[in-house]
Write a structure and sequence with these properties.
single chain, mainly beta, seven-stranded antiparallel β-sheet, three-stranded antiparallel β-sheet, 12 strands
Length: about 180
């Protein structure tokens, strides 16, 4: 029987499982927030993620990690996709694609995959590889097109959204 590191026993309302502690430990790493969009058999889909990173400059590769129990997981297999990095003002968009529909997103017909309007940056990708990642699948995409705008980023840390301010160098950058 697992014991809470603080001494609380299973059955106590203060008890936390080892998995809850692991999730809490993962949650201390601040990340950006993105929505992976693609065209599926039933139309356009989006999935909110915070597991996104660049992999390579040559060739240009990015990866996203998608939970296997996600509604759209299976439809993403072998499909082109776009990673849409959200701006700080786009928390409602993150919630919309996390299963709490709150608004109708504005779509842009992208090539090779649809994307969202007004995002902080975006990366349209063709499938490169996919890997078993336990309860997730790691999808690697080759970037075909991309762009960005200025602005603060939407972040996620400790189970909550936050703002990651845009870096604006001071006078020392002029030296």
């Amino acid at each position: 029987m697992a014991k809470d590191p603080r001494g609380f026993q299973p059955g106590s309302r203060l008890y936390r499982t080892p998995a809850q502690y692991l999730r809490g430990s993962y949650g201390r790493f601040a990340t950006g927030v993105a929505v992976v969009t693609f065209e599926g058999a039933a139309g356009r889909h989006g999935i909110t993620v915070n597991s996104f990173t660049s992999v390579s400059m040559e060739p240009p590769l990015v990866l996203v990690s998608i939970a296997r129990d996600s509604n759209s997981h299976d439809e993403l297999v072998d499909n082109p996709f776009t990673v849409n990095v959200l701006g700080a003002e786009q928390e409602a968009l993150a919630w919309h694609f996390a299963g709490g529909p709150t608004l109708e997103p504005v779509w842009i017909d992208g090539d090779p995959a649809p994307r969202l309007s007004g995002v902080l940056s975006w990366f349209s990708c063709t499938p490169w590889a996919s890997y078993d990642g336990g309860d997730h699948t790691i999808y690697v995409g080759e970037v075909q097109d991309h762009d960005y705008r200025n602005g603060d980023a939407l972040g996620f840390v400790g189970g909550r959204f936050t703002v990651i301010p845009e870096f604006r160098p001071g006078h020392e950058a002029l030296l």
